[in-house]
Write a structure and sequence with these properties.
Elements (H helix, E strand, L loop, with lengths): L13 H15 L4 H6 L3 H15 L6 H15 L2 H13 L4 H4 L13 H14 L7 H11 L1 H23 L20 H6 L1
Helix pairs in contact: 4-5, 4-7, 4-9, 7-8, 7-9, 8-9
Length: 196
């Protein structure tokens, strides 16, 4: 696969590099381009990896809802890497793969519950510039999720925006991890993508 990154990939070296490459290959089968590009600035890489590790430990919001929210952000922003990885992760984590595969076209799909739709709407509303989160949507989610999970949802969507926007700006694209999933990942509808 030819690199399309806007910053060239760096050669990952040293003990820390060896550990990252070994872990990445074990987990994903390949080293993520995002790691190869960010290797140019190891403090940034360490911070990004640390945020990921710490936010993965949050446990007040249902893992399926977190997955759908992150993938909704990735689809809206156009981060093919995050969308591909998010679906691959949902598959490997035993989440609802049939639903996860439909996140890019969640508005047209009939597989989602009202709560799941509200979570993805919230993720997109937070991602819009400027954000378009309404009191009504927040109130509905707060009533269904409770305050701890609502706070986690907002922070999770903010973290998703960090990764999706960084990857998109750096030209990091899908590495096709989701090809391991038996259900193909749906594509975002062109009518909604044009209006977003």
């Amino acid at each position: 696969m030819a690199s399309t990154t806007r910053v060239p990939k760096a050669e990952i070296t040293g003990l820390y590099g060896y550990v990252i490459k070994r872990f990445s290959k074990k987990l994903l089968g390949d080293v993520p381009e995002s790691v190869e590009v960010t290797w140019h600035n190891r403090p940034v890489l360490s911070t990004m990896l640390g945020i990921g590790r710490k936010s993965d430990k949050w446990n007040q919001l249902d893992p399926n809802l977190k997955s759908f929210a992150h993938m909704a952000v990735a689809s809206m922003v156009g981060c093919s890497w995050c969308l591909d990885y998010g679906y691959f992760h949902a598959h490997n984590a035993g989440l609802d793969e049939a639903k996860a595969s439909q996140v890019p076209r969640w508005r047209e799909s009939d597989v989602f519950t009202p709560l799941e739709r509200d979570v993805m709407e919230y993720a997109e509303a937070m991602t819009a510039t400027p954000p378009t989160v309404t009191d009504e949507l927040s109130d509905r989610l707060l009533a269904q999720l409770g305050a701890p999970a609502m706070v986690e949802l907002a922070a999770w969507v903010a973290v998703a925006n960090l990764y999706t926007r960084s990857n998109t700006a750096l030209g990091i694209e899908s590495q096709e991890f989701s090809k391991a999933c038996p259900i193909p990942l749906a594509r975002r509808s062109t009518s909604h993508a044009a209006s977003a």
